[in-house]
Amino acid sequence: MLLMLAAKFAGLLFLFFLTGVPVGFSLGLASLVLFLMESGVNANPAILAQRFFGGVNSFPLLAVPLFMFAGNLMNTGGITRRLFRFASALVGHFTAGLAQVNVLASMIFAGMTGAAVADAAGLGPIELQAMREAGYDPGYSAAITAASSTIGPIIPPSIPLVIYGIIAEASIGRLLLGGVLPGVLIGLFLMGMNYYYGYKRGYKAGKFAGLRELGASFKGAFFPLLVPVIIVGGMLGGIFTPTEAAAVAVVYTVILSCFIYREVKPGDLLRIARASMRSTAEVLFIVASASAFAYLVISAQLPGKVLAVMAPLVHRPALILFLINIMLLILGCFVETVAGITIAVPVLMPLVRSAGIDPVHFGIVVVFNLVIGLLTPPVGLVLFVTAKVAGMQVNELLKDLLPFFIPLVAALLVITYCPWLVTWLPNLLMGRPGV
Questions:
Q1: Which of 5, 79, 137, 293 sits between 20 and 30 A of 205, alpha carbons compared?
Q2: What is the pTM of this model?
Q3: What percent of the chain has pLDDT over 90?
Q4: Is-contact 128 389, C-beta < 8 A?
Q5: Torsion over CA of 375, 378, 379 and 382, rounded to 10 degrees?
């Protein structure tokens, strides 16, 4: 029953993808057809419609449009340029300097937007132009830009982690804090790959910009750098919830862009709001459609059946995590991150809890697996966005991107089998759960 239902859904989804149907509509149509097939003459589509709308009827989901709006403001208000200048002053003098700047800038920007696509679309043009002017190979420049974008959904704030927390009923505050060290680890692994490429291709270290430039760039980036401090500090201090933190981020970014830097005019706010609404509608439609499928999964009692099948492995969490990693890496190739979370988490959570795996640790593992999928066809949004920004064919970019899967998968394995990387900071700042 489990394999049959999964095969039917995968077949329908693949059919809709082949005909060019967008991801959200593909998920919704596949769920509707599967519902009608399974329910027969007694099918009541109103039930599926209720689950569709119920999937987005959640207060914490308000963080999604707010973080998107804040990210779009940063891309428009000159903030990304200031962050890139600061990152360049910090690490531009290392081997493969601008490639290292690319990664560090993504790590800093990740603390403000929570989305990989925002990183690729916002920082990407600045990074690619700087690397092109410095004589870096275009394929390598685009590849590290795409790979470093995967840090965005790991370091807080993170839109996928918010959605995971809602579905898994896990602490969103602990999830956001849990992403800090893994995000830094991913960045260090990518920097190590840059060092190897720099040595191999002769990308020499640049000159240190000097303390004066470092101080000037820090001064220019000071207010944007406060965004993650305000978000995390406010949540830890009990001043606001993660959803309210997103609203605070928007207000703060509006003040920066419109009144301090004055690079966004009041009339631009409407255009930015429209773009954010469009992106939000796409993400939440995927969530709603995937929630309808999740209802089919739960009504067929698939989580319990998965748990029954995997029962012999509940005392071997390392093996369970290995198998789940493989499944999620494959799933990430075919569905968007949010859709993958909404489809997989309801099925896997009973097994994960029975195996004694920390749900916060598991959340980082799930999100990073699916984020790697953003770099793979046929649904790799970051792959397509970066190719468009770089003016390259997708297949050309993918060839240059392949080596960067080595540090990404290596980081995934470390995060998977070193859960303290995720749990240490939340336990330190928020106390151990249940204590």
A1: 79
A2: 0.85
A3: 27
A4: yes
A5: 30
